[in-house]
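Predict structure. Input: Tetratricopeptide repeat protein, 560 residues.
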Amino acid sequence: MRLAAGLAVLAACVVGPSWAPVHAAAPARTPDAMEATLAGEYALQAGRLDEAATWYLKAAQAAEGDAGLAERATRIGLLASDDKRSRQALALWHERAPRSLAMRAAEATLAMRDGDAPKARARLEALLRDPDPRGWRHALSVLAGGGKDQALSARVLGELVDAGAIPDQLQPWLAFGGLAQRLGEDALAKRIVDDVVERFPGEPRVALLHASQLRESGDRERARGVLAEIAARPGLGQDLRLAVAAEYDALGDFPSAAEVMSRGPQDEQSYRMRAAMLAKAEDKAALTSLYQDLKRDSADPDPSRRLLLGQTAEFLERHAEALEWYRSVPGGEARWQARMRAITVLHKLGSRQEAFEAVRQLQQDASASDETRRDAYLLEAELHKDDDDFQGELDAYARGLAAFSDEPALLYARGLMWERRDDIPRAEADLRRILVADPENVAALNALGYTLADRTSRYAEALELIDRARAAEPDNAAIIDSYGWVLFRLGRLDEALVELKRAFTMQKDPEIGAHLGEVLWRMGRKQEAREYFEQARKLDPENRSLKRALAETGAAEPEA
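Output follows.
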């Protein structure tokens, strides 16, 4: 039934309803709410947000008193950047639900988009002072992604701090301090951190925010000092130890991260974090010591501990020992993870034939879950990729799809393989097979839209696919990045810059950073571009998008 329903929806996306083709003018008679809603959904499924905004506004107008339709019409209008229809829908929403926090947040969002700082500030301040404890979260969401100008968001946030509008509670102060950091406003972040330190003295989470702010502003030594003070506090709980270790990790101070996790009661999570940090530090002596400590308790065949011992031995490149540990995991969910890792270790040991025999046994093991068996095909393909064995990789996907017909994970991975090999038609075919069965598969919509934008000149089609993904997950950083990239390809540089900056604020990702650098370079803002390229390089110097951007712009060459 799911496949049949998906095919029906897909067909409707292509041809539209018989009474209202997607590209046709609105009917002469006024449609009722149901007709307009269906037309809006068809347009939305086709990725035509402008038409969806029109139809949903008609639906909201026809459904007197329906606040839900007015809200949906407003949100789709905002997503389509159709401010006129957004305002019309918002007026209906305001009339039907005047005290709704979401509606008032939408009013603030439109004010931000208009660049009307006084109106935006007034509306946001009202949300922050609302007795409903959720009000500040709505205000945070508006400032984080509602406007088109990050500088305006920072300015309004600063004015709200000056006005004393932030609720006198730790969580909102931490959230708005984090937002200032993500906006790249070091001075504002420092102001907020200084204020929150004064308001909540001795609170370790505040000290963590302070350390993060110092790190972001480049004062790494002071950041280490603050972290050392937190770590020295007696009775530090597991959650705080993990948070401190994560900050040390962000600083690149892996030994300190491991040392913090060595304090207090130990469990599998803390042991695993210690092993990972010591491996990053390439401190084989300390990792060996941890390994010996773990081995002392290995007489008890606890599956998780034996799995961890195998992983630690693998970190130490003691592959033969790792294999023994993985094979000794007696049962439970850990056993299946151990079998997968054992196959990888066999491959590392050069026992390729044995590794491929083991992975094929796992693929045929009736006692394994379908997910485990599917993942075994993905693992086999990955091993063939590591061997530069394209035919073997292709065969693994073919057998996997024979066993699991139209399995999305296998089709998605094979599609990425084709893209990596510059065979865009086959990549598109696999991603479209996913969408035939599941037209709302957000990952496939985004991947196909991005691929068409990045590797072809079919930009309008790419935009429709990405818009469908945006409608489903409007705050997904990867999708916002794809949207910014297709805008760049369409020559809409100013709009692209807004979206890519928003994505990078949400997620520090090397590909997003590379895209930002390329857009700024095209705009002639080469120094800013180099800064983003450098941030991307620190995150992942081998990122494909970064390498290509540096080659195409010439930014890798030294400045004249």
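Residues 54 and 294 are 63 Å apart (CA to CA).
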